[in-house]
Automatic annotation (TrEMBL):
It is found in: Cytoplasm. The keyword rRNA processing applies. Belongs to the endoribonuclease YbeY family. Its main location: cytoplasm. Keywords: Cytoplasm, Endonuclease, Hydrolase, Metal-binding, Nuclease, Ribosome biogenesis, rRNA processing, Zinc. Its cofactor is Zn(2+). NCBIfam families: rRNA maturation RNase YbeY. Its EC number is 3.1.-.-. This is Endoribonuclease YbeY. Binds 1 zinc ion. InterPro entries: MetalPrtase_cat_dom_sf_prd (IPR023091), YbeY (IPR002036), YbeY_CS (IPR020549). It comes from Steroidobacter gossypii. Single strand-specific metallo-endoribonuclease involved in late-stage 70S ribosome quality control and in maturation of the 3' terminus of the 16S rRNA. The keyword Cell inner membrane does not apply.
Length: 156
């Protein structure tokens, strides 16, 4: 993905952040993982969020795991069994929401973009924050990955 959209990080940055999230949490030795990052506007984010989550408002990041490439085997996501290439899924990141949140939270826009990519990739890898325990686990992973990338704790 290449973007000349004002305020949207370069594709190299998006790729580096996604790779950092995958490097510490994806199975090793099963080939290359791939994902698509689509930068969307508020209207498209709202439409996707309404369709897939029944929430009628735009949101910062939506994660769409890829369909399995082959039937699952004992609970291990089958998408990891591809020989050379496996599609992890898609992220839809809403540029206006990310920009607004960064301003409201007093965070550098680049740091908030990095957080949204890492957060979305962790969702694709099976992490969630539906309860306090799972949220603690996911947030700790986000903080660790972001620190390795040189960014402050987004929850502090």
């Amino acid at each position: 993905m290449a973007s000349s959209r004002r305020g949207v990080p370069h594709a190299r940055s998006l790729n580096r952040w996604a790779q950092a999230a995958c490097a510490h949490h994806a199975p090793r030795g099963e080939g290359q993982l791939a994902l698509t990052i689509r930068v969307v506007g508020a209207a498209e984010s709202r439409r996707l969020n309404r369709t897939w989550r029944s929430k009628d408002k735009p949101t910062n990041v939506l994660s769409f795991p890829a369909a399995p490439l082959a039937p699952g085997d004992k609970g291990v996501p089958s998408r990891f069994f591809a020989k050379d290439f496996a599609e992890l899924g898609d992220l839809a990141i809403c540029a206006p929401v990310v920009a607004r949140e960064a301003r409201e939270q007093g965070k550098p826009a680049q740091a908030h973009w990095a957080h949204m990519v890492v957060h979305g990739v962790l969702h694709l890898l099976g992490f969630d924050h539906e309860n306090d325990r799972d949220a603690s686990v996911m947030e700790a992973r986000e903080v660790k990955i972001l620190a390795l990338l040189g960014y402050d704790n987004p929850y502090a």
